[in-house]
């Protein structure tokens, strides 16, 4: 039963990350996703200190707001300060993440978070933290519900705004020309990424969220040239990553989140070499074919 | 406070070593970081930093001990591998650079975490301390560790200084470097090797997670203070050194604290302050400049207003009331009063019984603004073919920026026109015209 | 020489656009007649693309205003179509020709709704017009430069607008595509639609366009091609920048000067 709980929670988190990641990598904003996932840490710690618990709704919102603030700061230093954009990303998130780690060490007694959890989460403890109703009924692990709700929100967001997200990603100039606000959809997407990273933090930690945001979409991108299929393949890969990652971790007796990103990397490597469309082998073959034809 | 004095008196040889080591490695990474920053590869440094973790863990697993040389070799290999892979993925597929950086960074780090947790769970007693590589522990920089890490840092500093000219050129203009026969590929190889080495030396003090900041942040901060590469390197090194020594101090006084985040927080504060207050490029400086320009424009507009009024009644000495001025051109009362006072102090206006009049100096300045306005209107109609009824707004602005040199060029290009497009006379300085 | 018209389809009034405070377009004032096929020409960096981006509201104006069909852009967006430079998008994006062309219908589909069958039919019709039907399901990454440009044109056709702005539609396309595209543009213009094209090749100007706009930071000429496409005006357009104007522009940037005096 524990295995199922863990794999399900992992899948829910991975799917939410992966779906948003598809948009991020096509917008060439993968590193902004990386920055957000680090920068929400001080928000989480502060929300923790204020509300006293870690799965409150206010915490999701508060820390999510810090994620959006991060993208705002990155743009501010870039545009107003004239700092080049890669450095602007690098300076902003390392600073906020450092602040978060320090807050954790300073308030070690009051905050139920530690440095390890920050880096690679505590998905193994998911089955231990149960949601118990007022009448004593046990509904199952709390994280399962939180990631479930977040996933529903993300899916709603993507289905309702599909057209707009799609167009602002592919051709922002054309989108603005027909009256779709690119900055509105940019910030909506950033809010969604913040919300997802905050809710995934506890399970997989700051840095491994990045693996889930980037690796499955990048793999799917190599496997298809159809955007809707790319989303579906990402979903499938996310579930696969979560399940195989869990068993790898059990086998090696290591971190589940670490094993999940290892597997995500492995799948990417496989697609990179063997993909029928864009794989190394397929490309080499096509080259050979072309040269033999001439 | 006592700690502070004791620490910075450097009486304790241990403190001396730890402090010197931290400073040295912070300086070396700041120097290398300047070049990665200028080559717009800042985030690659982040990827390398995360990617050394699996190398450290593998080296430990294979050798079974914490010998710094072995760990450094392991770290170096995976760091290098990460760089090669990022480059390879970007070049040989449709995956873009940002995605491959993020991918390699997170996957390598994930593998590192998997290995690290395996080592921890296996209960190997010697492992205690491996996880200090995550967030750094400057106080652990003693004995052989100190010797090894410091020597690498020294090598880094020396190599950067030796290749200063070459690195400067390839970060500034790679194509040009190639065209004059520089071995660009080989130089880049040296630079990337230095980047990996800089990361590797930093891990003991700062940790892999935040090491990227030691490359990026001092360089970004230094860039705000100067346009000269040599000065930038010095400033970045100073920022690095300050944060390095503060990190050592914190690690000494609060051993439970991770050092890396503190070092990063301190260097980030230096950077934030630089972003705002640095002369010329800082955000406050830019705002201040805007304010000064606004004030100058207001002053010149008021003098122009006086001159225009005196053109109407042909009386340059007449004193005018606030309402009279306001009727000709509505300026916000508060700014108008402030401007009048300022011009009075500067000697452009004289003031009697709440009435203001131009001094000789003020008349000259007002006349110049009116002249420039009308000259620019002539220029716009003649050379930009803009209709006479559309030129006023632009001239209202440009009249404030034309330098005496541009003024002369305009006059001779337009051959001292007598009137503007609205047939108002252009007022030249009578003394100059007679000559 | 600037020819103005009554009841213009496009009116640009005192338009100044700056990049980091340096004007790239300075005081552009012009009107264009309905139904014309307009070529916008000028040397590199003259502000040609900037002009149509500014008209489409994609970059902020430092001064002036623009009216299309006698109204501000927001009121008539559905009647206006914009074709960006084809280099401005990533052609590795996972999408087929049909996916891209149907984007032209997005403005009519409305928020939160999906394109319907009729929208796909309109897209297919537009694809047929540019002779790409056999490639309709082809991935855009597999297209040649000329085919990519045809896809962009089809997307614009699917919008069914009355006023078209095209940023360098002939850049990097093969001769057959260029011929096909100009044929379609002429047909559109014959149907009373107005097409404004940023163009590079002076050889073809008289053959392609009936109205020419010549830019070099400032507007040098705007008028019927036979009147303004003269040696003298071309020399002025391509004869380099006005030194005083560009020196003042550099000064504005260096001092961070505002573009308009707002006291």
TrEMBL record, chain A:
Leader sequence residues: none
Segments passing through the bilayer: 6-26, 33-51, 57-77, 89-109, 144-162, 174-198, 204-223, 230-249, 255-277
InterPro entries: ABC_BtuC-like, ABC_TroCD
Keyword Transferase: no
Subcellular location: Cell membrane
Keywords per UniProt: Cell membrane, Membrane, Transmembrane, Transmembrane helix, Transport
GO cellular component term of the entry, any: ATP-binding cassette (ABC) transporter complex
GO biological process, one term: transmembrane transport
Pfam families: ABC-3
Membrane topology: Multi-pass membrane protein
Recorded family membership: Belongs to the ABC-3 integral membrane protein family.
Protein name: Manganese/zinc/iron transport system permease protein
Native source organism of the sequence: Reichenbachiella agariperforans
From TrEMBL, chain B:
Pfam families per the UniProt record, alphabetical: ABC-3, Fe_dep_repr_C
Top-level taxon in the UniProt lineage: Bacteria
SUPFAM superfamilies: ABC transporter involved in vitamin B12 uptake, BtuC, Iron-dependent repressor protein, dimerization domain
Membrane topology: Multi-pass membrane protein
Cellular localization per UniProt: Cell membrane
UniProt domain Iron dependent repressor metal binding and dimerisation: residue ranges: 359-427
SMART domains recorded: HTH_DTXR
InterPro entries: ABC_BtuC-like, ABC_TroCD, Fe_dep_repressor, Fe_dep_repressor_sf, Iron_dep_repressor, WH-like_DNA-bd_sf
Any single Gene Ontology cellular-component annotation: ATP-binding cassette (ABC) transporter complex
Main subcellular localisation: membrane
Keywords: Cell membrane, Membrane, Transmembrane, Transmembrane helix, Transport
GO molecular function annotation: DNA-binding transcription factor activity; protein dimerization activity; transition metal ion binding
Membrane-spanning ranges: 15-38, 43-63, 69-89, 101-119, 139-164, 189-217, 229-250, 262-279
One GO BP annotation of this record: response to zinc ion
Family: Belongs to the ABC-3 integral membrane protein family.
Listed name of the protein: Manganese/zinc/iron transport system permease protein
Automatic annotation (TrEMBL), chain C:
Residue ranges the record marks as coiled coil: none
Domain ABC transporter: 10-242
SUPFAM superfamilies in alphabetical order: P-loop containing nucleoside triphosphate hydrolases
Alphabetic keyword roster: ATP-binding, Nucleotide-binding, Transport
Cited Gene3D superfamilies: P-loop containing nucleotide triphosphate hydrolases
PANTHER family per UniProt: IRON TRANSPORT SYSTEM ATP-BINDING PROTEIN HI_0361-RELATED (PTHR42734:SF5), METAL TRANSPORT SYSTEM ATP-BINDING PROTEIN TM_0124-RELATED (PTHR42734)
Family under the similarity heading: Belongs to the ABC transporter superfamily.
Protein name: Manganese/zinc/iron transport system ATP-binding protein
Organism whose genome encodes this protein: Reichenbachiella agariperforans
